[in-house]
Amino acid sequence: MIAAVIFLAALAAPSLLFYIRTPVLVVIDAPFLALYGEKRARRQQLAASAGLFRRVRPVLVADGASPDILTEAVSEASSQPYCVIFQRRHLSAAERYHEQ
Questions:
Q1: Of 6, 13, 55, 60, nearest to 32 (Cα)?
Q2: Are 11 and 43 in contact (CB under 8 A)?
Q3: pLDDT in tens, 7-63
Q4: What is the SS3 assignment for 84?
Q5: Taking Cα atoms as reference points, which of 88, 84, 89, 87 lies closest to residue 97?
Q6: Residue 69: which CATH number?
Q7: Which residues have C-beta within 8 Å of that of residue 24, sequence separation ≥ 6?
Q8: What is the mean pLDDT of residues 75-84?
Q9: Four-residue CA torsion sign, 76, 47, 52, 6
Q10: Is residue 8, in this structure, part of any structural domain at all?
Q11: Which residues sit opposite 57 in a β-bridge?
Q12: Can you list the pairs that 54-57 forms with residues at least 24 positions away whose Cβ atoms lie under 8 Å?
């Protein structure tokens, strides 16, 4: 009986650890999804999550959104993410997020 409980705990521990760890956020916009496709973006997200053993969550924003909107969207997606990856064209939003 005790061995079964230990075995189940050993099986559950990695998945629990995966979901407890803070996520990595990737800011993407509509032209990015149109260019690369939603299936490919999802496949890359799953591959990155498996490789990092941490959730990778996309933050979808409108094309041409202001830096304030971008930082607000990132803040709503996760209160304290492990890291946030911005596209190069969103440099001002990345700097503003860093300042906050």
A1: 60
A2: no
A3: 888 888 888 888 888 899 999 888 888 888 889 989 999 999 999 889 999 998 888
A4: strand
A5: 84
A6: 3.40.50
A7: 48, 52, 54, 55, 56, 57, 81, 82, 83, 84, 85
A8: 88
A9: positive
A10: no
A11: 25
A12: 54/18, 54/21, 54/22, 54/23, 54/24, 54/82, 55/18, 55/19, 55/21, 55/23, 55/24, 56/23, 56/24, 56/25, 56/26, 57/23, 57/24, 57/25, 57/26
Is the C-alpha dihedral spanning 91, 92, 94, 99 positive or negative?
A: positive
pLDDT the model gives residue 24: 94
Considering the domain boundaries, does residue 73 fall inside one? Answer: yes
Query: Are residues 69 and 59 in contact, defined by beta-carbon separation less than 8 angstroms?
Result: no
Asked, for residue 1, whether it belongs to a domain, the answer is no
Q: Is the pLDDT of residue 86 over 80?
A: yes
